Amino acid sequence: MQLPLSLPPSSISSSYNFPNNHNNNNYYSSPSYNESSYNNESSYNETFNNRSSINCIKSCFRFPFLIIIKFFQKLKTTPLKRFRRIYLNRSPTCAFRIIWILAFLVGEILVFHYAMIKCAWPDNIQWDKSLAKPYRIAVIADPQIIDDYSYGRTGILQKISEIYPDIYMKKNWKNMQNIFNPDAIIFLGDLMDGGREWDDNKWELELIRYRKLFKPQKSEIPIFNLAGNHDIGFGDKIISEANKRFQKVFGKTSYNVTLGNHSIIALDTLKLSGSDELLKKEGNKLIEQMANDSSNLPRILLSHVPLYRPPDTYCGPLRQNNRYINQGHGYQYQNLIEEPLTNFILDNIKPQLILSGDDHDYCEIKHEDIIEISVNSFSFAMGVKKPGFLLLTLYNPLLNDNTMNNPKYNNNNNNNNNNNNNNNINTFAFQQCLLPNQIRIYILYIILYITTLLCILSHEFVKIRRTTELLPVWYKYQQKANLILFTWKYWKSVGKAIFDILEIALLMYFICWIWF
User: Fold this and answer.
1) Which segments does the entry list as coiled coil (predicted)?
2) The pLDDT of residue 453 is above 60
3) How far apart are CA 84 and CA 51, in angstroms?
4) Which of 254, 251, 249 minimizes the C-alpha distance to 290?
């Protein structure tokens, strides 16, 4: 019998009896083989196979851990110096330059552009564009440009309070015109924060600043303005001089204009809330005129201060701060128009839509079937995280010369007349557009600045420490008491790295600044 190749010598000697002369012939021809030796052989083969399987499974489980162990063993020796050398030789200055360029590109340009393209002109699938072209209006409330009156600050802090809200509004103003190209623009009052408080010279300077901020890119676009309580005052405390100069520059504070076959009624509810009949004359005359007007044009009422509503009237899910606008008053302001005046206005004007401002946050309610929208402030300095504006689309093919001979117009003429007489709100559509959260952007800049500073400090510390370790032993003992953080060499190196990052970051910020 031929011996199994897997059997060790010890097993062979215990299972077979070898003769004294160990020649090959005797070895194979005369073995002393019995039943017990066969059983030992089978047992060994089974044990060996089991151990092989277990070892194979263990090796599979240990393989990834062995790789990790080997990796860390490498790190403990020469690779550590190599990685340290790579880290020290490759300064983070270049990386942070790129990071700051991208940060300003995103935070000063792309975020603002994205906020605009995320919004779109509202539309209605029932509108037949072949009968009439929709008329598109951008509605802006409470830009309220910051001045010396706003916070009582002085010096550079006051300049910062003025400059950054101005930059914010100028960006959004230009983006809004470029992207949406409105047919008309309406401002719902509070053009300046301290307009009513200044003398004529100061007011003229603020007016120049306001016109630079909100300069129309197309001269043919009509712009309509309401007076706000920050412009002329409120009620019985209307400031006569402020009222006169506002009307001299911006025109009447109560007027009616036709846009997109809609009657836009700008009503000075500030003066109507007072007791001076002379100041109220213009507003009362407009109300009487609209009450006697027999035209079928849908009416949209503009008021700086929101109309009265019951306490705790829900403003809808788009409001950012508290849920309601409740009545309240103070120096030169009142949260809501009084209830009797509100009822008088609604009964005589009978608008299909009301647009108001003053509250700085979005609010959408109903006076029975009449929708009133309070539009967000356009400035981030007015207490809302995300400022905004309103896109308003008007569609009314009636009285349009281009549609009089259109067969579709003749077929639907009676239906359209009935819809207008029933105050159908389908002649308009509106969409709130939110602007970027500027405070959050500034916070992210601060976090990035702190991260940059910590990385530069740690990098320069390790770099100088390594340089010191390479010096002669006697020098290291001499410098042992001198902490690296208190050496001129350390701070000079840190300053150079920060300056290298700062120069490119400021250059990029300046480019973003003059971009608008």
Assistant:
1) none
2) yes
3) 45
4) 254
